[in-house]
Every structure is written in C-alpha cells, then in structure tokens.
Specification:
The protein is mainly β. Helices cover 6% and strands 38% of the residues. It is elongated, with a radius of gyration of 22 Å.
C-alpha cells in the first residue's frame, strides 16, 4: 500500500481508495496528474471532464494540417447546414473551415474565410461573400454557418447567427462525381475550430 508504482507522488493505497489506477500517473488522461487532482478540492482523477477544460481543434495553417471527415455517403447532402466556431490566429486572414467536393470543381458545400477576412459560403457553382470581416486577433471567436435548400434553391450565409447574404441558385450542388471526394475541416487555416456541425437540413 505504501508503494508508488507510477511515481506520481501518491501511494498506491491512496490511489486505489480514490478509484485511480496506481499504475498510471494520470488515470483519466486529462493532462492533470492524479497527485494534482487528489490534492485539489472538487477535482476527480477518474473523470476527464472534472475539471471541465475547453478544447478545440488547433491548426497551424499548413496545407497538410486538417481534419478528415469519414468517407461516408451521409455527408453527400442535397439539403444542408454547415456551421462552426472559429478563432483565427493573429494576422491570419483566410482558410477553409468545412468543405466537401465530389470531384475537382464540383463543390457540394463550402464554408471559409477569404484572403480579405470575409466569410464565404458556397454550394455548387454559387458563392456568397459576406461584408462582415472576421477578427483575426487571436482571441475573438466568430460563428459561421451556410445553408442550402434543394426545394427553394436558396443558399444562405450567416455570421454570428445573423443572415449576412443569400441568393437563389439555378443549379443544385453536385453530390457525387468521378472523385476524388474530399471532405475536410480546417485546411490551410491557422486557427482554432470548435463545435463543427453538418446538418441534413437547411
């Protein structure tokens, strides 16, 4: 009981009594050692959500830095809403937030920020650009969303929950093609991205 297998400064018996694993210095793998969590009131070494720590996808802007969405047919959407919270790094103007293309020049949906800091939404051959400018100060979060309805053929772009611009498209976005199908989050964007949602509704 007096041993300390994981050398975290807490005896095995004390870790076992608390429900922690005496073989692991950080039982819940939350970045805080069991010693810290056992000595801090309200913390729990067996629950990674206590204390709650906010996290987001952190990207360095490299062209090879992005998250890949699973290659599943459920992402080929006729009606869609795509949204995310973004926090560009200081001095960073542009990047892709979410996009899916069925083949080169065949965009199903796209949400991003252009080189001048303006939000951009795209469905098929139609592109919308908002007059708003996304703050690139490294500390401000901005919510972006785009939506397309196959029934009305309307593409809409939202910034912080407010409709920024919309238009009617003569052609529906292309869902499938000869490939390669690309479905990525955050490509070429030096930023934090959080709460990405892709909805099968407009």
């Amino acid at each position: 009981g007096a041993e300390d297998y994981d050398a975290d400064g807490v005896q095995n018996l004390d870790e076992q009594t608390a429900g922690a694993d005496p073989r692991l210095p950080d039982t819940d793998d939350d970045g805080l050692s069991d010693a810290v969590e056992l000595s801090t009131p309200g913390y729990n070494p067996t629950n990674a959500l206590i204390p709650l720590r906010w996290r987001a996808l952190s990207l360095d802007g490299d062209t090879n830095a992005y998250a890949v969405m699973p290659r599943a047919s459920r992402f080929a959407l006729e009606n869609w809403t795509i949204e995310a919270w973004i926090r560009p790094a200081a001095g960073t103007a542009s990047g892709r937030v979410i996009y899916r293309q069925a083949q080169p020049n065949a965009t199903n949906y796209f949400l991003g920020v252009d080189a001048t800091g303006h939000p951009v939404g795209q469905g098929g051959i139609v592109t919308l650009t908002a007059t708003n400018v996304v703050p690139a100060d490294g500390s401000t979060w901005t919510h972006l969303a785009a939506a397309y309805s196959k029934d009305t053929h309307v593409l809409r772009l939202y910034v912080n929950g407010v409709l920024a611009t919309s238009t009617v498209s003569a052609v529906d976005p292309q869902l499938n093609g000869v490939g390669p199908t690309i479905q990525r989050i955050g490509e070429g964007f030096r930023c934090l991205i959080d709460e990405v949602h892709i909805w099968e509704t407009s």
